[in-house]
Amino acid sequence: MIDTHVHLQDPAFDLDREAVLARALSAGVEVLVTLGTDRTSSERAVELAERFEGVYAAVGIHPTQAHQASPGDLEALARLAVHPKVVAVGECGLDYERGWCPPKVQWENLRRHVRLSRDCGKPLVLHNRGAHEDLLRILEEEGAQQVVLHMFTGPAPYADRCGERGYWMSVGGVITYPAAKSVREAVARIPETLLLLETDSPYMSPHPIRGKRNEPANLLRVVEAVAAVRGENAERVGFRTAENARRCFGL
Ligand SMILES: [Zn+2]
Q1: Residues with beta carbon < 5 A to ion ligand 1?
Q2: CA distance 32 to 8
């Protein structure tokens, strides 16, 4: 299995990062993509990718950090993006629910990431909270070509529209929450070739360990929940989504 979205450089893993990776491997999670959220964490992501074989990196500035980034930070990301173990541009996107960063600043940050993704030929990994329409509009205006919608939560008609555009949809722990019925409906509709899995570790722990530190080994719970809503075998879901991730990130 491949965990397409973690933050392995997060200080939450400073005391036991190698043990976390060992547990992931014993759970069958052989490859991880660790995403930066600003310049420093992107540099750290690349360092970890250099150090651990199954770890790959993505570089980007998170929408809630965009107001703190300088033009020099984006230039630094562009230099990192060509590294052979950098497989994507992100985490970027739009967040209208945590009001730290004005939308105008987020839009410009997103547009720059779309251009960087096109320039380096690597997919764009997007965070979206409450910005469904603006996100699709900006992606279209900027001619985004390879798009991954991280922690995809639907709703179902949005899954259909994203599927028509050929965007990958990455499913994480939210699918296990008892109240997340609309998420499960949306996940059931994702085309099989566009489905990816993630944990977003150390965040977004699945039910019933919600609120505790998450780690890639918990991808098993996500796989089982996805298989249940799609009426498929968990092993097959793990295998097919890993194939998709290899195609998406060129692994
Ligand atoms: Zn994330």
Answers
A1: 91, 200
A2: 9
**Entry field: residues in the chain:** 251
106: which 2 tokens? 């987020």
Cα separation of 196 and 190, whole Å?
A: 10
Whether 162 and 169 have beta carbons less than 8 Å apart is answered as: yes
Q: How far is the CA of 37 from the centre of ligand 1 (A)?
A: 8
Write out pLDDT tens, residues 222-241: 999 999 999 999 999 999 99
* Both tokens assigned to 7: 């933050």
pTM, whole model, 2 decimals? 0.97
DSSP string covering 127-192: EEES-HHHHHHHHHHTT--SEEETT----HHHHHHHHHTT-EEEE-GGGGSTT-HHHHHHHHHS-G
